[in-house]
Amino acid sequence: MATTDTSFKSKRPADGTFKQQRLPAWQPILTAGTVLPTFFVIGIAFISIGVGLFYVSKGVREKTIDYTQCASIDNPPRKCAEIIGDKTNASCRCSINFEIEDFEGTVYMYYGLTNFYQNHRRYVKSRDDSQLLGELSTTPSEDCEPFAIDEDNSKPIAPCGAIANSLFSDTLELNNLKTGKPVPLLRTGIAWDSDKEIKFRNPKGARTVEQLKKAFKDFAKPKAWTKDIWELDTEIDDNNGFQNEDLIVWMRTSALPNFRKLYRRIDHSLQGYEKGLPAGNYTLLINYSKYGRW
């Protein structure tokens, strides 16, 4: 006697035009008469775009200053690179005089690093995105190791990870020699709006210095920092803690080993700087630090 197994389910695709691959198809036949005109049209379009980009780029002015080997103000003629190389947590002040022509329009200030591999696989992963959203936990992500727990007091580190630990620590000031006053620099508006509004948040209810200090009382600062997270910017509440824009800019890792990151914006609302940065002699004052935030 034969029986039929009704539980068996066929794997054969349904008899439809899509699953049986019976849909109508069209394949162009490439000939010289069709390909060459297409290439010419695309070429003309890209030439137009290139001319426009070239015209715009010609209007951009740039002044590059390398302060790697600048001489110390407090200990001349030694170079700052030598001083901070001899002692851990050392700092050094130096200055460089320079002259510029008129910089019209909006002026930005950048810092640049060479041979700094922010694109290294372990470095890129070394962060805790949940923590940066203000969701503090006593057990940071394993990706933060070995910058997750402070061995001295057994407290979790916030912000944890190698990226935050290596935060750019030099401070730059620009002085106008003609007026004898510092050039007004803005610390806000340098990070992506999407980063500050979505990816980086302080713990709920923590905005002022005292509130941040209370929220982070059970957490340690990164090993290389000399200041706590609530001291990054004590003057502007919205630019402190995890929402500090210097921190946010640094945490957006670069894809290449040589890179520049936005550091400051010139305040064009003040008298003398409405149209840009006027021509003249300036001094770049650098607080050159090997380790530590500021």
Q: What would your notes on this structure say?
A:
It contains eight helices and eleven strands. By secondary structure, the chain is α+β, with helices and mostly antiparallel strands.
Brief write-up:
The chain has 294 residues and is of the alpha+beta class. The chain has helices at residues 32-58, 80-86, 121-125, 129-132, 162-165, 193-199, 209-215, 245-251; strands at residues 91-100, 103-104, 108-113, 149-150, 155-156, 171-176, 181-182, 185-186, 259-266, 276-277, 280-289. It is 23% helix and 18% strand.
Query: What Rg, in angstroms, do the CA atoms define?
Result: 28 Å
Mean pLDDT: 90
Secondary-structure element string: HHEEEHHEEHEEEHHHEEE
Number of strands: 11
The tally of helices reads 8
Unreliable residue runs? none
Q: What is the overall silhouette? A: extended
Strand fraction band? 15-25%
Major sheet:
4 strands, antiparallel
Amino-to-carboxy terminus distance: 89 Å
Strand order of the largest sheet: 1-11-6-7
Quaternary organisation: single chain
Structural class: alpha+beta
Helix content: 10-25%
Structure keywords:
294 residues; alpha+beta; four-stranded antiparallel β-sheet; three-stranded antiparallel β-sheet; 18% strand
Q: How do the strands and helices of this protein lay out in sequence?
A:
Blueprint: H1 32-58, H2 80-86, E1 91-100, E2 103-104, E3 108-113, H3 121-125, H4 129-132, E4 149-150, E5 155-156, H5 162-165, E6 171-176, E7 181-182, E8 185-186, H6 193-199, H7 209-215, H8 245-251, E9 259-266, E10 276-277, E11 280-289
Antiparallel strand pairs: 1-11, 2-10, 3-9, 4-5, 6-7, 6-11, 8-9
